[in-house]
Amino acid sequence: MSEAAPLLALRGVTKRFGGVNALTNVSFHVAEGEILGIIGPNGAGKTTLLNCVSGVYKLDAGSIQLRDRRINGMAPHHIAGLGIGRTFQVVKPFQSMTVRENCAVGALFGSREAHMAPKAAFAAADEILELVGLAPKARLPVGSLTIPDRKRLEVARALATKPRLLLLDEVMAGLNPVEVDEALEMIRTVHGNGVTIVLIEHVMRVVVGVCNRVVVLHFGEVLAEGEPGTVLHDSRVIEAYLGEKYAQRQARAEKRDD
Ligand SMILES: Nc1ncnc2c1ncn2[C@@H]1O[C@H](COP(=O)(O)OP(=O)(O)OP(=O)(O)O)[C@@H](O)[C@H]1O
Ligand SMILES: [Mg+2]
């Protein structure tokens, strides 16, 4: 008997912008139920990768499969309808609407049940806002939200499309340590509800805290892949991305733990 296909499989994914090789021959998979981290320096191709998976960009070469279905070449709304939700690195809510309305829009237009009635969409939105901890702020205009709450809303809007795979692009950026802890809790809750997650992250505490596996991108290529404990100790990853300071801090922390 053959093993079930991974939830998502990228093979030889290549994307160029003029002379810039944003992604070159990128291959990896995402198993159902895992939290996979994507890390790497600025400009490594992380957001481009998410844009390729969600159909915003067409590939120059390679393929992307959701289970046994090839999704590269499909329109973004079609891919969303197949169960891939995403956030954007630059948050783009509808400013004039309330938190609840913003979330309901996601439920109305992103759902596989294409003709969801507004009442059902609001009910779905209320459930999701509860899940991400935004229920007390449901009636506020989006413009009044703090940065961490905007990030929560962004996750809520993605969840409203009922994804089985959620792609998060730097949802911890700009948060203080307490807010990072709260956001980590939110990710664990979402994951606990059966959603597979791929997250792009610069905060290593998050990567170590929730990711089962990590893929390191460097100049658009996969530099390393594996469990966080192994990958974050890899000398090539330290040299290309984490830096000597991180390695020294880590070594000191491990000494203390002995
Ligand atoms: N639409 C575009 N047009 C032209 N070049 C682009 C476009 N999008 C990305 N690039 C280039 O592709 C490369 C990868 O960019 P990308 O935004 O994917 O990096 P990133 O890893 O997400 O970086 P960051 O950590 O800063 O968000 C960069 O050189 C970037 O300038
Ligand atoms: Mg990016």
Lay out the secondary structure:
Blueprint: E1 8-17, E2 20-30, E3 35-39, H1 46-53, E4 61-66, E5 69-70, H2 76-81, E6 84-86, H3 99-110, H4 118-132, H5 147-159, E7 165-169, H6 177-192, E8 196-200, H7 204-210, E9 213-218, E10 221-226, H8 228-231, H9 235-257
Parallel strand pairs: 3-8, 3-9, 6-7, 7-8
Antiparallel strand pairs: 1-2, 1-4, 4-5, 9-10
Helix pairs in contact: 3-4, 3-5, 4-5
What labels would you give this structure?
binds adenosine-5'-triphosphate, 258 residues, Rossmann fold, alpha/beta, 6-stranded mixed sheet
Brief synopsis:
By secondary structure, the chain is an alpha/beta fold.
Roughly how many Å is the radius of gyration? 19 Å
Q: Provide the succession of SSEs.
A: EEEHEEHEHHHEHEHEEHH
Class from helix and strand fractions: alpha/beta
Tell me the span between the first and last alpha carbons. Answer: 45 Å
CATH H level of the domain at 36-57 and 75-215: which superfamily? P-loop containing nucleotide triphosphate hydrolases
CATH fold-type name of the domain at 36-57 and 75-215: Rossmann fold
Helix content: 40-55%
State the shape.
globular
How does the major sheet shape up? 6 strands, mixed
* Number of DSSP strand runs: 10
- The order of strands across the largest sheet is 6-7-8-3-9-10
User: What's the mean pLDDT score?
Assistant: 90
* CATH C-level of the domain at 36-57 and 75-215: Alpha Beta
Low-confidence stretches: none
How many helix segments? 9
